[in-house]
């Protein structure tokens, strides 16, 4: 099987360097493109659509600004070109995704009487305009259109602006266009890379400025999102796909091998790790992969990924396996054990969790309803996957009666004066001066 040597390792025997390699894994390195992207964003902020045209004329030499926006005729043509079975699958997936995200909505007004005469609460308000980045170009990801646009729609966002990079002759994959339209995109632009992120962040004559940008992309897209953060809000940084499979002796080796391969077919930087308490399982999975790899499609990508951040690890017991699982903080975590729900409360860090033999990661990628825009590279320790919450603001409010303020008067005055803000204290004291 070429130059790739697959081996089973024991967790307790990992060197600190090897453990760190797995925990850090292949994440998108934006530093090598940061300055280039900074230059693109500066030019775009200065020159607007003209900067986008300069780059996008590689797709069509006589491109005009107006052609960067998808027309109604293009959307109609896209629907006509999509295989009816694919369109039906997109619609079914959309129903599942919308149903799951609709359950995340909260009451528009939440309030609590924290003490007599003191009412405190918050409002739930959607962002007014968001940008959804849908990867594209030579590949197509209509599922990402559903995953980014539908939660925004469910949240009540008024304007949802989608951007996706075009392919040859400025064409966008028809399934991506159809998915973006049926999900509820208000406007769709054929713009990719830093030019899309900058246009959404700063606003141009053609592309409206948004409040937040969400969606996965390559390292140029990730770098651009990090650089415009503050000008707009963003979701979590995203890198190559990854999965950790936590299994015991009840797991079916063929399922584990198939799940392993499904993650690393994304690209050479993808990561997959098996952690099991049953060494024969790990050895059998390695045997299956070794036998299948020579005849698999995308073999070069698979071999590069296997030579990178992949591993087959044997734990002494479940405690050691759980410790590593939480330290890894996987984008996708599969639990293939006899009682997967018994382990669920013990998971502290993961983007999305797949329980049992019949919940492979691809079902979450496409149609179970949960979102596939997830934190990678250990970012699951501090970020969650995309949800309705990403498109909401939650301003607070309070109402106090005179009696309620009286109960807090001395506390507020004392603290304000302690912080050297006498006029803060006066704003409270004034209300009782002439009582």
Task: Break the fold down into its secondary structure elements and pairings.
Elements: E1 8-10, H1 16-24, H2 34-47, H3 49-56, H4 72-81, H5 84-102, E2 109-115, E3 118-123, E4 125-126, E5 129-133, H6 142-155, E6 159-163, H7 174-183, E7 187-189, H8 193-202, E8 212-214, H9 219-228, E9 233-234, E10 242-247, H10 253-264, E11 271-276, H11 279-292, H12 299-306, E12 311-314, H13 318-328, E13 330-336, H14 340-343, E14 350-355, H15 361-366, E15 392-393, E16 396-400, H16 402-418, H17 422-429
Helix pairs in contact: 2-3, 2-8, 2-9, 4-7, 5-6, 5-7, 6-7, 8-9, 10-11, 16-17
Distance between the amino and carboxyl termini:
88 Å
- CATH homologous superfamily assignment of the largest domain: Nitrogenase molybdenum iron protein domain
Mean pLDDT: 95
Counting helices, strands and paired strands, the structural category is: alpha/beta
Tell me the number of structural domains. 3
Which CATH architecture of the largest domain would you pick?
Answer: 3-Layer(aba) Sandwich
List keywords for this structure.
single chain; 435 residues; alpha/beta; Rossmann fold; six-stranded parallel β-sheet; five-stranded parallel β-sheet
Please tell me about this protein's structure.
- The protein folds into 3 domains: 151 residues, Nitrogenase molybdenum iron protein domain (Rossmann fold, 3-Layer(aba) Sandwich); 201 residues, Rossmann fold, CATH 3.40.50; 32 residues, no CATH class.
- It contains 17 helices and 16 strands.
- It has a 6-stranded parallel β-sheet, sandwiched between helices. A 5-stranded parallel β-sheet has the order 7-6-5-8-9, with helices on both faces.
- It is globular, with a radius of gyration of 26 Å.
- The termini are far apart.
């Amino acid at each position: 099987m070429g130059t790739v040597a697959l081996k089973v390792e024991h967790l307790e025997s990992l060197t600190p360097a090897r453990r760190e390699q797995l925990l850090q894994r292949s994440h998108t390195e934006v530093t090598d493109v940061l300055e280039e992207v900074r230059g693109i964003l500066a030019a775009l902020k200065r020159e607007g659509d003209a900067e986008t045209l300069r780059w996008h004329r590689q797709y069509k030499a006589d491109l005009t600004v107006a052609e960067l926006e998808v027309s109604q005729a293009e959307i109609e043509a896209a629907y006509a070109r999509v295989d009816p079975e694919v369109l039906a699958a997109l619609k079914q997936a959309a129903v599942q995704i919308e149903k799951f995200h609709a359950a995340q909505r909260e009451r528009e007004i939440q309030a609590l009487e924290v003490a007599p005469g003191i009412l405190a609460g918050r409002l739930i308000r959607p962002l007014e305009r968001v940008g959804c980045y849908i990867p594209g170009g030579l590949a197509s990801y209509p599922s990402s259109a559903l995953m980014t646009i539908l939660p925004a729609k469910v949240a009540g966002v008024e304007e949802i602006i989608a951007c996706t990079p075009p392919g040859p002759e400025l064409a966008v994959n028809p399934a991506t266009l159809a998915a973006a339209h049926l999900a509820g995109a208000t406007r769709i632009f054929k713009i990719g890379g830093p030019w899309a992120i900058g246009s959404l962040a700063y606003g141009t004559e053609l592309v409206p400025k948004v409040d937040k940008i969400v969606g996965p992309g390559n390292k140029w897209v990730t770098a651009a999102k990090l650089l415009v953060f503050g000008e707009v809000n963003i979701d979590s940084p995203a890198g190559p796909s990854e999965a950790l499979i936590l299994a015991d002796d009840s797991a079916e080796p063929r399922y584990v091998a198939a799940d392993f391969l499904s993650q690393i077919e994304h690209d050479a930087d993808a990561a997959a790790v098996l952690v099991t308490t049953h060494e024969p399982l790990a050895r059998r999975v390695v045997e299956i992969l070794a036998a299948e790899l020579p005849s698999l499609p995308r073999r070069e990508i698979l071999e590069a990924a296997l030579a990178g951040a992949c591993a087959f690890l044997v734990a002494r017991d479940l405690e050691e396996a759980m410790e590593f699982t939480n330290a890894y903080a996987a984008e996708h975590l599969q639990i293939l054990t006899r009682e997967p729900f018994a382990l669920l409360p013990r998971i502290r860090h993961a983007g999305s969790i797949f329980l049992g033999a019949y919940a492979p990661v691809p079902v979450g990628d496409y149609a179970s309803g949960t979102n596939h825009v997830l934190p990678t590279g250990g970012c699951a320790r501090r970020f969650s996957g995309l949800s309705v919450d990403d498109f909401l603001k939650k301003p607070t409010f309070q109402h106090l009666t005179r009696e309620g303020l009286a109960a807090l008067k001395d506390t507020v005055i004392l603290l304000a004066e302690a912080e050297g803000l006498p006029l803060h204290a006066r704003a409270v004291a004034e209300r009782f001066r002439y009582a």
